[in-house]
Amino acid sequence: MSFYQGKKVLITGASAGIGYALAEELAQLGAEVIITARRRDRLDELASKIESLGVKAHVFVEDLSLPESGTKLYDQIKSAGLSVDILINNAGYGRWGELTSFERDDYAKMLQLNVTTLTDLCHLYLPDMVAQGGGGIINVGSMASLSPVPYASVYSSSKAYVLMFSEAIRYEYQNKGINVMALLPGGTESEFAKVATEKSEKLTQRYQQREGSVSGAAMQTSQEVAIECLEAFEKNKQYVLCGSRNRFLHAITRLMSRKRVLNMVGGMFKRVAG
């Protein structure tokens, strides 16, 4: 029997990309999924696909970039009589460009979604999981969390928070039957780049022409990331850096000075965001 068979899994940001792929993979493994995002049409389409497999899917439409949205979502799910065995905080977005290329309100929404709502949902669901005798949390960070990233300064910093936070609460709850893991994808075929570079059509085209991530390495599909994520979580990993090329690149940068890494990463992103 699958590790995920019969488990109720809440996935935020499930309308596209990695979240969508995680919902599909979990359904195939027998999990009951609770999916949330802003776009009802996408969620309904995904729910229909999942239910065609004979698996239950529950849809909750919520904009998690708004203050107190995590509490609102939690209350709605509770009111529906649903418990959560595994929480996947996948919702998030980034911006690429110089810091002042975007308004402060835009960064406030990004930090609400990437940091505050993620933290709120963990804070809300951890007591429930302890009371249930166990559970799990997957927080989706990024390879960008592993070093400072010029031209994605707020985004990479928010994802560094996700990694540090996930590892810290993993330790706090490891003896209470709670498995916490950080997922660190690199370049992934999804809508992320379109959102991150939407400041200009030229910027989006420049990213796409690189035929891969900012580093030039081939992108993974969302499905590949989802499969790697679920396999690592089942093995109780602390974090997983997706993709062999990304793991190789990270190993190389660990041998370099921080200044050299900063110059290298800055040069990569400048070619895209410049």
Tally of distinct domains: 1
- What are the low-pLDDT stretches, counting only 5+ consecutive residues below 50? 206-216
Number-wise, the strands total 9
Strand-residue fraction?
5-15%
The helicity comes to 40-55%
What about the largest sheet? 7 strands, parallel
User: Assembly type of the shown chains?
Assistant: single chain
In DSSP terms, counting alpha (H) and pi (I) runs of 4 or more, how many helices? 10
CATH evolutionary superfamily: NAD(P)-binding Rossmann-like Domain
Helix/strand-derived category reads alpha/beta
* Gap from first CA to last CA: 50 Å
Large-scale geometry: globular
CATH topology: Rossmann fold
User: Rg from C-alpha positions?
Assistant: 18 Å
pLDDT average, as an integer? 90
Spatial order of the strands in the main sheet?
3-2-1-4-5-6-9
**From the 3D coordinates, which CATH architecture would you assign?**
3-Layer(aba) Sandwich
CATH class group: Alpha Beta
What is the H/E string? Answer: EHEHEHEHEHEEHHEHEHH
Description of the molecule:
The protein is an alpha/beta fold. The protein has a single domain, classed as Rossmann fold, CATH 3.40.50.720. The protein has 10 helices and 9 strands. It has helices at 17-28, 40-51, 69-79, 104-132, 153-173, 192-196, 201-208, 222-234, 244-253, 258-273; strands at 8-12, 32-37, 57-61, 86-89, 135-140, 178-184, 188-189, 220-221, 239-241. The strands form 2 sheets. It has a 7-stranded parallel beta sheet, with helices on both faces. A two-stranded parallel ribbon has the order 7-8. Helix 4 (104-132) runs parallel beside helix 5. The longest helix is centred in the middle third of the chain and has 29 residues, at 104-132. It is globular. The N and C termini lie far apart (50 Å). The model is unreliable at 206-216 (pLDDT under 50).
